Amino acid sequence: MKTEQPKITVLMPAYNATRYIGEAISSVLAQSFTDFELLIINDGSTDDTVNIIKSFNDPRIVCISQDNKGVAVALNLGLEHARAPYIARFDADDICLPNRLKVQYDFITAYPEYSIIGTAAEYIDVAGHYIFTHHPAAHLNEEIQQLSYTVCPFIHSSVFYKKELVINNGGYNANAYTYEDHFLWVNILKNIRACNLSQPLIKVRFNPESITIDEKWRTRKFRRIKYATLKQRSINAGQGTELQSIGGRQFSRKIKEGAYYALCGKKFLLNNYQPQKARENMTRAISLHPLRLDNYLIYLISFLPESLITKLYKINPANNYIK
Question: Which of 135, 270, 288, 295 is the most buried (most CB within 10 A)?
Answer without folding.
Answer: 295
